[in-house]
Write a structure and sequence with these properties.
4% of the residues lie in helices and 42% in strands. It has helices at 118-122, 202-205, 209-212, 216-219; strands at 22-24, 30-36, 47-52, 62-68, 75-80, 86-91, 97-101, 110-115, 124-133, 136-144, 153-158, 163-168, 185-188, 193-196, 225-230, 235-241, 246-251, 260-264, 269-275, 281-288, 298-303, 309-314, 319-324, 332-338, 346-348, 354-358, 375-381, 386-393, 401-408, 414-416. Strand 7 (97-101) and strand 8 form a beta hairpin.
Length: 431
């Protein structure tokens, strides 16, 4: 995706948009954690929590700031603008988008804009994926503002937070095989390709998990497709049948690779998207994650920067798994560790030596009782074993439920992409 050999060590997560103008050079200083508020806990609001994660700091492993947004809207995912000056974060329930300034003082993010009319302007609800484009932000949503079902789309904004237009996810009969569902987005500029995946609508993701899995009708309302888009034209070109709600998408960053991988939540599979011998893009099931009969519920994945390994978190059994994907056609699980009673997001450093894990999936899907752990943990990885370095208990600190994580750095710790490495600018159609 980036198409270059990294000349020095970088800390950045491997899942960011290729259009970011800079990488964190060396050790990350901060971890920004988009956190769900819990009624009666602290101020009860969603918030951006900043952890000090530099081992040379006297505050290593501690919360240094928290910025409340003044309400609970099911905080979920976040993403940097292409200039990395701002972090956009969304609420699945209230459909608000919060924009934080993380460049003026990276240790003390500031809420500088709240986009409250996302649903009205776009016709969508549940802003989920925030994917940077040159001067723009593409926001993938999970649902719509008409019936709360899975039919959805993507909304394009400029970096000032001004709405531009909506792109509908392809659905039958207009496009054969399309179900109209959406979830994640991932771009390979060298191939003029964007992939989107699919999940479910607001009615389902705001229903308690125990109730949902007993409702046969509701369980049929999950996406079973991925879509290949012509990036420059922003037109869907092909719909792949990928049963079981394909979630996060990761393109290999290894120079010369042109394949991507995803995990399906309900069927517990790894799927590969790659061109076949005839040069046609195909999607195929290449591995099983745990025991599908026990519904481990794969959630987040993180691919190594060299495209040789993949971390997979499974929510229900609280397990972090590592797959050798040096042959992406035949991934092999080589390691597993129970890292919590429930685990969701996983973020690894560019050099693969540090792995962060957070615990919350959705407020109504998180476990109860003693299994309702809410934490962020840092693990060291030596290629053989995950070694816990610290744990921040978000309940003990009355912060809420930690979800998405992004790396931050002090001024001077950001390095520009080499000029020859930067992906070509993309001109997005404005029809």
């Amino acid at each position: 995706m980036f198409g270059f050999t990294v000349p020095q060590a970088f800390a950045d997560e491997t899942c960011n948009s290729p259009y970011l103008s800079s990488l964190v050079k060396g050790q990350e200083d901060y971890l920004y954690v988009w956190t769900l508020g819990v009624k009666g806990m602290g101020d009860g609001s969603d918030k951006l929590v900043t952890l000090d994660v530099n081992p040379k700091s006297p505050r290593f492993g501690q919360v240094i700031t928290q910025v409340s947004v003044g309400g609970r809207g099911e905080a979920h995912h976040a993403g940097f603008t292409d200039d990395r000056r701002f972090l956009w974060a969304g609420g699945l329930d209230d459909s608000k988008i919060y924009v934080f300034d993380i460049h003026t003082d990276p240790a003390k993010p500031r809420l500088v804009n709240t986009i409250a009319d996302f649903a009205k302007r776009s016709g969508l609800v549940g802003p989920h994926t925030f994917y940077a484009l040159p001067g723009r932000m593409l926001v993938g949503a999970l649902s719509n503002n008409k019936d709360g079902g899975g039919t959805t789309g993507m909304a394009l904004y400029n970096n000032k937070g001004e709405f531009i237009r909506t792109y509908d996810m392809p659905a039958a009969p207009a496009m054969k095989g399309g179900d109209g569902y959406g979830y994640d987005l991932a771009i390979n500029p060298a191939r003029n390709a964007m992939l989107s995946s699919s999940f479910t609508g607001k009615k389902n993701y705001m229903t308690p998990l125990g109730t949902l899995i007993k409702d046969q009708g509701a369980m049929k309302q999950f996406g079973n497709t991925m879509v290949l888009w012509n990036l420059k034209a922003m037109q869907p070109e092909h719909v792949f049948q990928v049963p079981g709600a394909p979630l996060e998408i990761r393109w290999s960053l290894n120079p010369g690779d042109d394949w991507a991988i995803t995990a399906t939540a309900l069927t517990s599979k790894l799927w590969l998207v790659k061109k076949d011998a005839k040069g046609q893009w195909q999607a195929k099931d290449v591995a099983t994650i745990g025991d599908p009969a026990r519904t481990p519920l794969p959630v987040d994945i993180s691919m190594r920067a060299d495209g040789k390994g993949l971390w997979v978190n499974t929510f229900m059994d609280g397990t972090t798994r590592y797959f050798d994907i040096s042959n992406p056609e035949a991934p092999r699980q080589t390691y597993a560790k129970k890292t919590g009673s429930q685990v969701n997001m996983i973020s690894q450093s560019w050099d693969g030596k540090r792995v962060y894990v957070s615990s919350s999936l959705l407020a109504n899907w998180d476990k109860g009782g003693a299994d309702d752990e809410q934490f962020v943990k840092l693990f060291g990885w030596d290629g053989k074993e995950l070694s816990e370095q610290w744990k921040v208990d978000f309940y003990k600190l009355k912060l809420g439920r930690p979800h998405h994580m992004k790396f931050g750095a002090k001024a001077g710790q950001l390095a520009a992409y080499p000029a020859a490495a930067a992906p070509a600018a993309v001109s997005i159609a404005k029809r």
